[in-house]
Structures are given as structure tokens and as C-alpha cells.
């Protein structure tokens, strides 16, 4: 018989697969009996790239969603309180194990997807993402309390320009360059950061992909595709309040895992929301009705060549189990 603490620990381990900005994995779990808490780890914040910590909260939300899905897949029932202590804003969630229920097959599919999902920065091919797939993904995002906008063909140039402007502004910012270099040259034992082997060499793209190693050599060639069949979506919400950002991170995770389970390759794009003017342009794509949180490219890879995996931190460095 699995104890509540064991069930929660297994869910926390699944959350280590979650995507995070620069692969910073800025969260910590603490398990005590039948309760587990999720904390933001501000020592992993990106002061230059993400000074307000919006991408940090999205990343933590993705970890929270991974843990929730793992519990549901294993047939565990849990109550989730988000930002439970107003005086302790880094305490992002408290999950309490409340009992057993039938295992959720859909959640099991998402847990399987979590283990194989990788950010694929290469160009995708001509095969289009269908309206039906996009509608399904929009529902999944809305079920998590956020919104999804599919960038229309007439809006594509503006998305491309936004990413280009943001990339240019960041390239000229020494603090950004220093931060990028730090997180792309991490020693292997840290289990974090974006290894150049997973980055893509610059090429002409419909929407530019972040150049992670401007002074070095990225490991991946963009390939023969032109992202012609790719869909670009924007996860957005009503405000930049922490509660909305945490929810949006859960929605981002639901989107990425559902798309992966559906055979799609995925790549988040956040540079355009990191710089104020491009972010303003993205607000325009949403007709001013919301705050853009992160864009995602979805599609079918042009190549079957395997993608190298990004590293992950050791469970013992992220998950604390307290004896009670
Ligand atoms: C909030 C957020 C923003 C991200 N922004 C970008 C981005 O702008 N460009 C990019 O190539 N990847 C981006 N990523 C993907 C991460 O770099 C990636 O998740 C991390 O390096 C771990 O790799 P994996 O997704 O293959 O496991 C983002 C991920 C998150 C959660």
C-alpha cells in the first residue's frame, strides 16, 4: 500500500520533467505526511531576462501541473490550494492527499508524454496542425483557467517582428548576454541550464528562435523545413497577478503534454514577452483583451533524428521529505 508521502514524492519526481525558462527549474517541494508544498526558488530567478519573475511563475505552474497529473494518473485524490498564505508569496501551492479514486487514463497519457516531451527548436515541416487539434488544445488551456489565441495568418508578420525586435534588444543587453552565457554553460553536475547541444543554429525562420549560443556553436541544424505547417499560439490571461501566472503555467504544461501525446512537436517562445515593446505588439495580436504570457510553436518535425535531452536536477536537490 502506497503511503500518502510516497504518492506525493512520486508526483514531485514526475514534476522534474516540467519545462522551465532557461531550464532553471526554479522550484522546491517539501513533503510532510499527507501534505506537499511547492515553493518558488528565487535563487534561480533570471534577473535580466525575467526581472518580474513572470516566467519563473509560469515554470512553477508547469511543475505543479505535472505533479497534479501524476497524482490523478496513479488514482490519488488531492486538494490543491494555490498561494495559500497571503503573507508568504513564494509558497505557491499546497497539495493535500485526500484519498484514492479510479486511475485517470487521460492523465496517464499525459504522464507518459511528460517523460518524452522535449522542446524541439528545429524547423517543422509542411504538415499542418489541424483546426480540430487547435480546438482541443484551446479547451485544455481553458480548463486550466487561461486562454489560448491561435495566431492568424495575417498576424504572423507581427509575431515574427515582435520576436525579432526582442531578440535584437536582448542581444544588445550585456546583462542578458551574461545571464544567457551562465545558463548555457552550466557544469554537468548541476542538472540544469540549456546545453548548446539542444539549441538550434540561426537560420531564416517564420518566427526567429532564440539564439542560445550567439558566441558559440549550437548543436542542432534547423533542418529542411520552413515551419510552413506550424501553428503559433499564445497562452494569455487577464492579468499579471501571481495567481493568474501560476494557472497559466499549469495551462502551458497541459498544452505541451496534450500536444506531445497527440504526436506534435512543441517549442515555447518567450523572448517577445520579455521586452516591453514587443510585448505591447503581442497585446495587439490579442486585440488588447489580455496579457500575453508565452507563445508556443506546434508542428511536425521534418526529421526523425532524435533530439538530445535537456538535463534535470537530482530529486534529492529539489524534494525534501520531512519525517513526522
Ligand atoms: C516559461 C517558459 C519560457 C520558455 N521560453 C523559451 C524560449 O523563448 N525559447 C526556447 O527555445 N525555449 C523556451 N522554453 C523552453 C525551455 O528552454 C525548456 O523547457 C528547458 O530548456 C528544458 O528543456 P525541455 O523542454 O526540452 O525539457 C521556455 C520554457 C518555459 C516554461
UniProtKB/TrEMBL annotation:
Coiled coil: none annotated. InterPro entries: Nitroreductase-like, Nitroreductase/BluB. GO terms for molecular function: oxidoreductase activity. This is Nitroreductase. It comes from Pseudosporangium ferrugineum.
Amino acid at each position: 500500500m502506497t503511503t500518502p508521502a510516497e504518492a506525493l514524492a512520486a508526483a514531485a519526481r514526475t514534476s522534474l520533467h516540467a519545462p522551465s525558462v532557461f531550464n532553471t527549474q526554479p522550484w522546491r517541494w517539501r513533503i510532510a505526511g499527507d501534505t506537499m508544498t511547492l515553493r518558488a526558488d528565487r535563487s534561480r530567478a533570471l534577473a535580466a531576462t525575467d526581472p518580474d519573475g513572470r516566467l519563473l511563475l509560469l515554470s512553477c505552474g508547469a511543475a505543479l501541473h505535472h505533479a497534479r497529473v501524476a497524482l490523478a494518473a496513479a488514482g490519488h485524490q488531492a486538494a490543491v490550494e494555490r498561494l495559500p498564505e497571503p503573507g508568504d508569496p513564494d509558497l505557491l501551492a499546497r497539495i493535500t492527499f485526500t484519498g484514492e479514486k479510479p486511475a485517470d487514463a487521460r492523465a496517464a497519457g499525459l504522464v507518459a508524454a511528460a517523460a518524452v516531451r522535449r522542446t524541439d527548436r528545429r524547423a517543422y515541416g509542411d504538415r499542418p496542425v489541424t483546426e480540430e487539434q487547435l480546438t482541443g488544445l484551446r479547451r485544455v488551456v481553458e480548463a486550466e483557467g487561461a486562454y489560448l489565441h491561435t495566431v492568424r495568418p495575417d498576424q504572423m508578420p507581427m509575431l515574427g517582428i515582435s520576436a525579432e525586435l526582442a531578440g535584437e534588444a536582448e542581444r544588445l543587453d550585456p546583462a542578458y548576454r551574461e545571464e544567457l552565457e551562465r545558463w548555457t554553460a552550466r557544469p554537468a553536475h548541476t542538472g540544469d541550464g540549456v546545453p548548446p547541444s539542444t539549441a538550434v543554429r540561426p537560420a531564416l525562420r517564420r518566427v526567429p528562435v532564440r539564439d542560445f549560443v550567439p558566441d558559440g556553436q549550437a548543436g542542432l541544424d534547423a533542418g529542411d523545413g520552413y515551419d510552413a505547417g506550424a501553428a503559433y499560439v499564445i497562452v494569455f490571461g487577464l492579468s499579471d497577478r501571481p495567481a493568474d501566472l501560476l494557472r497559466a503555467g499549469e495551462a502551458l504544461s497541459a498544452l505541451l503534454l496534450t500536444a506531445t501525446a497527440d504526436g506534435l512537436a512543441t517549442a515555447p517562445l518567450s523572448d517577445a514577452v520579455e521586452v516591453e515593446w514587443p510585448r505591447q505588439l503581442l497585446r495587439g495580436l490579442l486585440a488588447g483583451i489580455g496579457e500575453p504570457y508565452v507563445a508556443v510553436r506546434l508542428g511536425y518535425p521534418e526529421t526523425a533524428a532524435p533530439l538530445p535531452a535537456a538535463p534535470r536536477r537530482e530529486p534529492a536537490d529539489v524534494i525534501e521529505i520531512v519525517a513526522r
